[in-house]
Design goal:
Protein name: Cobalt-precorrin 3 C17-methyltransferase
CATH superfamily of the largest domain: Tetrapyrrole methylase, C-terminal domain
Number of strands: 13
Bound molecules: S-adenosyl-L-homocysteine
Pathway: Cofactor biosynthesis; adenosylcobalamin biosynthesis
Pfam families: TP_methylase
Strand content: 15-25%
Strand order of the largest sheet: 3-2-4-1-5
Order of helices and strands: EHEHEHEHEHEEHEHEEEEE
Keywords: Cobalamin biosynthesis, Methyltransferase, S-adenosyl-L-methionine, Transferase
Number of domains: 2
GO molecular function: methyltransferase activity
CATH topology of the largest domain: Methyltransferase, Cobalt-precorrin-4 Transmethylase, Domain 2
Distance between the termini: 55 Å
Shape: elongated
CATH architecture of the largest domain: 2-Layer Sandwich
Radius of gyration: 19 Å
CATH class of the largest domain: Alpha Beta
Number of helices: 7
Length: about 240
Amino acid sequence: MKKIFVIGIGPGEESYMTPAAKEAILASDVVIGYKTYIDLIPHLVENKKVIDSGMKKEIERCNLALDLAEEGSTVSLVSSGDPGIYGMAGAMLEVKGQRDSTVIIEVIPGVTAVSAAAAVLGAPLMHDFTVISLSDLLTDWEVIKKRLHLAAEGDFVIALYNPKSKGRVTQIEEARDILLKYRKKETPVGIVRNAKREGEAHMITTLDEMLQHPIDMLTVVIIGNSNTFIQGNKIITPRGYAL
Ligand code: SAH
């Protein structure tokens, strides 16, 4: 069948991968994805052609997947977390549209980083929340700043993906300064690195002190709303129940 599965394998630990994701990988002839992730699931890729996508740019990867599917292979394109959240699902569908291809594309959802990180922290997302990527590689920084202002003004809990890399260090500082215009210095902040995979670590801090802790590209930062509080070693955003 001419088919591509765009699969989210979750945060990394195999127990957080859905059975549907596993079935799709098992049903594929070719698996395209980062070696680091595929190395976690060797038993699922036995006898399959594995292409390490570390070597290829996103659009090249989608074109390759489509070429292989057009030739008759069933292909799995693997993303971490959920493929529809800063993953490969959008680009894959766009490339298919541009090439006017009849290959069937099925998106398989996965546990995204913010869900995994929230579980580590307790229950910080219990009310309306927003996810903002601080990466300005594909999005203008002005647009990102505007979204930070509006999300803060709207009192959303805010989760930051791609918060800081070696070459991108000022964005997290600017983001915090924007949030401080709307929120108290004591606002709870959770920083989770490698949520639900090897090397998991987390820190519960405040908006005032968050920059004193290590933040990098393996980290999600969750900033509470005006009602979020810390109880013991957990962060809770109340839903509003009368206790
Ligand atoms: N598709 C992925 C997100 C890709 S963007 C998903 O749905 O999770 C990459 C960013 O996601 C990283 O910079 C980091 O901010 C976050 N991330 C992904 N996995 C993570 C994990 N296990 N723990 C903490 N952050 C993670």
